[in-house]
Design a protein that fits this description.
Layout: E1 2-4, H1 9-21, E2 27-29, H2 35-43, E3 50-54, H3 66-72, E4 76-80, H4 89-97, H5 102-116, E5 122-125, E6 135-138, E7 146-148, E8 159-161, E9 166-170, E10 177-187, E11 193-194, E12 200-205, E13 208-213, H6 217-230, E14 235-241, H7 255-258, E15 263-268, E16 289-293, E17 297-300, E18 303-307, E19 310-311
């Protein structure tokens, strides 16, 4: 079953593509059906059936948390949200990112997990020879890495938000993270990718962003919002994006899509539901803001895993 809208060009393009690939599927135009009718259609499906959600924004079905509830029913889900945020050349970048290279995603993903899960330290170089002090050090072992690579064999649910291509973890000891990291983009208050004219440097002490260099008013607002709710700005997630369709120059405006970008991103704020920490109560954190590092080199333990724009696992 494919539930779609026609409110932007990318949604219309994806709907046409799914009609071509799934000619026997049931197609439901969100605008022409009530939430009750759509929920009734879901009820007719059986476990392992596929639901595709093509959304210019995000479908609202009253209190129905659509993807979570579909997973509870044992359904497979492919979700394409916030498509209206991407226009022009970004539409092509997004479509390119949907191409699936199983050997690459699964091979690199599992290789990174094996290295991360056995490493006791690591670092991220975001400066190269020009900015040699721009190094973020992880003086800690890492949480067990999670994979979003299209292999659902060991997972309770099949599917999720597309495009895919990511490995993520975080330091077990958040206070062991320190140094400097240059970011070329960040998620702003409208959940869009904001690209400053020059990289912003974050200064990290004991796992917290304590200062910046070359910041912008928009990024200052992001930090101020986090501090207003959480007092300090924690650095938590280490996201290793694998999707080669997105780079530092091939960008899309939707932050949820762009976080698959080939390179490293980090999260700011205490919110991270996957990894519990002794001093963080689940639900207390209000902010999880993705920021994208100028990734020159990434090292876990003794292994260089990223250099010259590619993962080398």
């Amino acid at each position: 079953m494919v539930v779609f809208d026609t409110n932007c060009e990318l949604a219309r393009t994806l709907t046409a593509a799914y009609r071509h690939c799934l000619p026997e599927a049931q197609f439901i135009d969100f605008a022409n059906h009530t939430p009750e009718a759509i929920l009734g259609s879901f009820a007719a499906l059986v476990a392992s059936d596929l639901v595709v959600l093509i959304q210019s924004t995000n479908f609202r079905l009253e209190a129905f948390r659509i993807r979570v509830e579909l997973f509870k029913r044992g359904l497979k889900v492919i979700e394409h949200p916030h498509l209206a945020r991407m226009q022009g050349a970004e539409e092509g970048y997004y479509i390119d990112a949907l191409a699936y290279d199983g050997a690459y995603f699964r091979g690199v993903g599992k290789g990174l997990k094996a290295i991360i899960d056995t490493s006791t330290s690591g670092w991220l170089d975001s400066g190269g020879a020009q900015f040699p002090d721009a190094k973020l050090v992880f003086g800690s072992s890492f949480e067990s890495a999670k994979l979003n690579v299209g292999d659902y064999s060991d997972m309770p649910n099949v599917g999720g938000q597309f495009p895919i291509g990511e490995v993520f973890t975080e330091a077990i000891d958040l206070e062991a993270v320190h140094g400097r990291v240059r970011i070329h983009a960040f998620g702003d208050t409208s959940f869009k990718v904001n690209r400053p004219a020059k990289p912003i440097t974050l200064i990290v002490v004991k796992g917290q962003v304590v200062d910046t260099e070359d910041s912008t008013p928009e990024f200052d607002t992001v930090l101020a919002n986090i501090r207003a709710d959480e007092q300090v700005v924690w650095l938590r997630e280490l996201g290793l994006g694998l999707n080669r369709a997105f780079t530092q120059t091939r960008t899309v405006s939707d932050i949820g899509s762009y976080e698959r970008m080939c390179g490293m991103h980090l999260s700011l704020g205490a919110k991270h539901g996957i990894y519990g920490k002794p001093n963080f109560k689940r639900g207390d954190g209000k902010h999880h803001v993705d920021v994208f590092a100028v990734t020159q080199e990434v090292v876990f333990g003794e292994s260089v895993v990223y250099r010259d724009g590619v993962w080398i696992v």
